[in-house]
Amino acid sequence: MVGVKSVPSPAISADERSHEVDHPSSLVAHFGADEPLPLDCGIDLSPFQIAYQTYGELNADRSNAILICHALTGDQHVFNVHPVTGKSGWWDTLVGPGRPLDPQRYFIICANVIGGCMGSTGPASINPATGKVWGLDFPVITIPDMVRAQAMLIDRLGIDTLFAVVGGSMGGMQVLQWTAAYPGRVFSALAIACSTRHSAQNIAFHELGRQAVMADPDWHNGGYADQGIHPHRGLAVARMAAHITYLSDAALHRKFGRRMQDRELPTFSFDADFQVESYLRYQGSSFVERFDANSYLYLTRAMDYFDIAADHGGVLAKAFAGIQTRFCVVSFTSDWLFPTSESRALVHALNASSARVSFAEIETDRGHDAFLLDVPEFFDISRAFLQSAGKARGLTSKDG
Amino acid sequence: MSVQEVLPLNGLASEQSGQFRADHLLVAEMVKPGSKVLDVGCGEGDLLQLLETRGIDGRGIELSREGVNRCVAKGLAVVQGDADTDLVNYPDDAFDYVILSQTLQATRQPKVVLENLLRIGRRAIVSFPNFGFWKMRLQLLIGGHMPRTENLPAAWYDTANIHFCTIKDFVELCDAIGVKMERAEALDLYGRPLRLRLPWWVWNLFGEQGVFLLTRGLGK
């Protein structure tokens, strides 16, 4: 008989996770009936809340604020211990004292996106109209919706112009949307491993993930919360597939090769014989502990819909016409999810718009994930870009 | 062809001459302060840095990844790109000056590149090694082999430089595509400008490199 070990069920209970959904341990901005969020789908979301974290202090003239936009499955916990996983912040390679995004010098803000599940209103939140979890009744959201909500938070914090908006992947899409929607409010923009539109291949991968979630019998047409369960198997498969796209063949080979896991001979079963298999299973199961399945559907959909040029008559350069923001675009050689060619198209459009843009492709075999990893060349460029922008902005500091 | 009076290198050049290349100092001197400049093939950004000290808004294109990364690390606005293929993406009149410093000989289509320079910029500044330089001629004439110099050290089979020309050739190209020369300079082996009143054949023989400030002519 062929033995198959099932993916372990999540260690955190649905109750614990739902507590972070509506009552996050981070800061929360509440927006009442008088401040609705107009969504692209035509619905006004109200009331709603945004969970966020800040690091460092806002200076007297409010000119040192940096907004970090997180990627698909990230959240506001950039530089602190995560309340659910207990792990350190997701970008503590880039953010921290002495690092390119230094809280001793900048006021750093990171908010959980609308549609997320770590304290900002999303499909896992309680719908105040029914007292039940939103589920699929939650309206479909877009990247511009996320950015519109962030702008309301930035208003609430009393900040007119952000010194920088920084993000990778889906976060990079938000960076670009910020500059297109609020050009006067963004002094500099660091867009990493992203694109102005989601490619057909990427939409295809997202569809695969969503179908995995929806094929899970525990999904219950999105109504699993009412049953007190979570479609963790489908979500884990979605995460496994996505995770492969974040890496590169070279990186997988370097890390695992064809090595076996805790054995020398194959078991002639569908157990995780190979290290790469058990690694993926681990990635899948640890992900479901902290993430909501419906939220995954909504956020992948938001990325799929993203196309800045489409909102400007199909001409990308028009999105950035006359823009004063200083741009730095970074791509990675082995990133096949957001390849360099897409960054280059963005750079051409920015050049055509006469924007001040830098563009660097970083040589690495670590794939799309490189933006989250310790890649010194990437840090050097980020630091140099922010420092020169800081000089232009008149930010003074001890180390110039 | 009209060639302007040669202006003496200004104070900036003498103060910083140790720090910057002679042809860069000459180029920087040709650019009006406060203008917007695109440096095509900007290398590690030395010229852009020099221009920034003069309050010039500089951008760069550089083919090599290492070059780009060093530029960005210096805080310069530089993108990775290829002069032969990427200039078409730049709109007309996007810059006051477009500079092609010691890069013309490495382009696949020098004529097309030159035309693009003067479409994107109202003015272009082009500098290139002069293959009519006496040392080059001697190497071919006496040595019987393709010339190699300090600035162009690679052998013929592994050089990125594929389209060499002489000052005379370049002047003829400018005439052919109706480009006006606002200013022309030839620098000797030590980076010193040759005297203006000398006849063209002297420049072509004794200029180690040519530096030209071009504007759009009536076209042909």
**DSSP strand count of chain A:** 12
Shape of chain A: globular
**The CATH homologous superfamily of the domain at 14-197 and 307-393 in chain A:** Alpha/Beta hydrolase fold, catalytic domain
Q: What is the SS-derived class of chain A? A: alpha/beta
Tally of contiguous helical segments of chain A: 11
Number of domains of chain B: 1
The CATH class name of chain B reads Alpha Beta
Indicate the CATH architecture of chain B.
3-Layer(aba) Sandwich
| Helix residue percentage of chain A | 25-40%
Query: Which sheet architecture does the biggest sheet of chain A show?
Result: 8 strands, mixed
Protein name (chain B): Methionine biosynthesis protein MetW
Organism (chain B): Bradyrhizobium commune
Pfam family, one (chain B): MetW
GO molecular function (chain A): homoserine O-acetyltransferase activity
Please tag this protein with its features.
heterodimer; A: 400 residues; alpha/beta; Rossmann fold; eight-stranded mixed sheet; two-stranded antiparallel ribbon; 11 helices; disordered N terminus; B: 220 residues; seven-stranded mixed sheet; 33% helix; SAM-dependent_MTases_sf (chain B); Methionine biosynthesis protein MetW (chain B); Methionine_synth_MetW (chain B)
